[in-house]
Backbone:
């Protein structure tokens, strides 16, 4: 099957079978992590791919792990993404929004001064995040601190945040969403025994460790 032949299903039609992978660009307008005209231009330039998957996008104000990455949970962010999706569609492309929560791969600067949340209070050894602030005006990779273990209320809220972000992405004009579940971020942290030492319904056996992901998928 040629990469350049069209793909069609009941839900999606693509001009070819080439997919642009998500890649963090860190180009948002500040403050507010708002998608902008530069991002619209960037994605429109790549609309000849059958499908574009955007850079990972925050679902809430506590899901960020790197400076200048976009969100999709405020009206300003949604309006910014509308520029992007309109530009891609005008160029004949299709585009999905990848949504994420970074969990413990974060820093208090993104968390209103408190520790990031994670399945368990285990420090991610050797993991750094990129920060731009008054202390690091040129940007610097900084160690992640010890996170705090998520409560059941935290879990329920984050599940709702994923659902709300998915709905907001569709409202912004995206053709679909992709949930970021790998690379050591929150969903992956629940799945792995080196980051999930819980003894409740969300830890222990593989069936319990996958419960968080399965719960948000059902939303």
Residues:
């Amino acid at each position: 099957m040629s990469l350049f032949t069209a793909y069609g299903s009941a839900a999606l039609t693509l001009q070819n079978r080439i997919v642009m992978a998500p890649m963090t660009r860190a180009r948002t307008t500040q403050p507010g992590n708002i998608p902008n005209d530069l991002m619209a231009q960037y994605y429109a330039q790549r609309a000849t791919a059958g499908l574009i998957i955007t850079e990972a996008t925050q679902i809430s104000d506590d899901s960020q792990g790197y400076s200048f990455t976009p969100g999709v949970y405020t009206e300003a962010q949604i309006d910014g993404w509308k520029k992007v999706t309109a530009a891609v569609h005008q160029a004949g492309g299709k585009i999905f929004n990848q949504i994420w929560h970074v969990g413990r791969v974060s820093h208090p600067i993104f968390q209103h001064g408190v520790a990031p949340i994670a399945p368990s209070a285990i420090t991610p050894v050797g993991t750094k995040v990129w920060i731009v602030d008054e202390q690091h005006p040129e940007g610097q990779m900084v160690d992640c601190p010890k996170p705090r273990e998520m409560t059941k209320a935290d879990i329920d809220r984050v599940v709702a945040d994923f659902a709300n972000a998915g709905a907001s992405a569709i409202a912004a004009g995206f053709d679909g969403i992709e949930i970021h579940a790998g690379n050591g971020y929150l969903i992956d942290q629940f799945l792995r025994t080196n980051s999930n030492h819980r003894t409740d319904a969300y830890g222990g056996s593989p069936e319990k460790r996958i419960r968080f992901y399965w719960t948000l998928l059902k939303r």
The longest helix spans residues 152-171.
